[in-house]
Amino acid sequence: MMKKRPKRKINKPSFCYFTKTGTEPDYKEVLTLRRFISERGKILPQKQTGLSARYQRMLSREVKKARYMGLLPYTDRHAI
After folding, report:
1. pLDDT 10s digits, 45-69
2. Largest CB tally within 10 Å, which of 3, 17, 26, 64?
3. Which residues of 24-60 are buried (b: 16+ CB within 10 A; e: fewer)?
C-alpha cells in the first residue's frame, strides 16, 4: 500500500486584491500584474493569488495583452 504524500500548504491571501482596492486589472499597470506572475513568467493559479474567479479571468486576459504589447516577457529566458 502506497503512502500518501503530505499536501504542501500554499500561503493564500484571505482576500481578493482587486475587490479590496476597488480596481480592475489593466494591461498598462505592469507592476500590479507582476504581483500575480511567477519568477518564470507564468500566471499564478487562483489558489495562490486569492483572487475571485471573475478577477482571475480578467487578470489572465490582461497579462496576455501586456505580453502581446511587449510590456511583460513571455518567459524568463529572454536575452537582455
Report:
1. 999 999 999 999 999 999 999 999 9
2. 17
3. ebebeeeebbeebbeeebebbebeebbbeeebbebbe
Domains in the chain (CATH in brackets) are 17-69 (4.10.640.10)
Alpha-helical (H) ranges within the chain are: 17-21, 30-34, 46-49, 53-69
How many other CB atoms sit within 10 Å of the CB of residue 64? 14
- Global model pTM greater than 0.85: no
Q: Give the gyration radius of the chain's Cα atoms.
A: 15
